[in-house]
């Protein structure tokens, strides 16, 4: 425990999960609530936003709809939503979608209750007032943003991503309804599910892990090992989809406390510089980084192997730990995820710049094995 003497654990989000649990939505809003629904155009076109609107209408809850949440949301996207929030005289928020709509809703809430521009609140602990009541309904099983105090803002000129980190932006409630995400396209399900697995494995093995987060992360790893293939395989696997939503949330609760590790430190510049989907970049990098980290936590990687369903009977700790890497490779293969970053457009000529950007991340400092820029360059060489 080189970084902290005390372990803090805080969880304030009321979570409901189960098929058709969106019917529970009204209980989270007061009689005087006027709700801004924050979502994206894809979810409107897919008819999923309509289902939420129907629940609000059935319960006479007034609302306005903002469908302008973009992937990698810039400040303009937040301010356009906040203008609609003010114009429609809203006093509550509902986010529907993946990480971007949830993050945009959090940031609309920051500006609505604190004034100014969202850029003023970047970093940790800069938000003074609580955001309005926010209910999140995730439709992918990746980010866990429904339970985290993080929102990420993208600068479209530099492609840098900066977080707003504050307990004031943690959502009041999360509703995990598998009916809304059971039909997720296979590629998106695979990528976001592997993002959740990366959150769980990085949280479980890093230097800030503790007994509370270990329980959450290990349970997430097991649920993902048991359910991700099935959830991606068909559009009617409600139980597997619900378990994936729960796993993503558990991983979110864990990494809120612990932060992550080298996979996320490396995947952020890969996404920014080569436009690779966040979950896909993580999925490809994960086994290479695990291999690098193995010696630092043989015991924990052996547990990861067990949680992913590998048979470690009769093996010594090193052999069992290696099975964790093999299990992740098999999972990637079953989900049709490429084995190399070169297959998704990353160029070897970019290694120096990628490694330099990686070393700026705080996630490197909590990685289980001490890491130099040369180490990162070596991992990129193998992974590209
Ligand atoms: Fe992630």
Short description:
The chain has two domains: 14-181, Rossmann fold, CATH 3.40.50.1970; 186-383, Dehydroquinate synthase-like - alpha domain (Dehydroquinate synthase-like, alpha domain). Helix content is 49%, strand content 10%.
- The SSE string, one letter per element, is EEHHEHEHEEEEEHHHHHHHHHH
Shape: globular
Distance between the ends: 33 Å
What percentage of the residues does DSSP assign to strands (E)? 5-15%
**Ligand set:** fe (ii) ion
Q: Determine the fraction of residues in helical runs and give it as a percent range.
A: 40-55%
CATH topology of the largest domain: Dehydroquinate synthase-like, alpha domain
Q: What's the mean pLDDT score?
A: 95
In the CATH hierarchy, what is the architecture of the largest domain at level 2? Up-down Bundle
Fourth CATH level, the homologous superfamily of the largest domain: Dehydroquinate synthase-like - alpha domain
- CATH class identity of the largest domain: Mainly Alpha
Tell me the total number of β-strands: 9
State the helix count.
14
The radius of gyration computed from the alpha-carbon positions, rounded to a whole number of angstroms, is 20 Å
Low-pLDDT regions: none
Oligomer: single chain
Biggest sheet, open or closed, and with what strands and sense? 6 strands, parallel
Which structural category do the helix and sheet elements fall into? alpha/beta
Q: What's the domain count?
A: 2
**Major sheet strand order:** 1-9-6-4-2-3
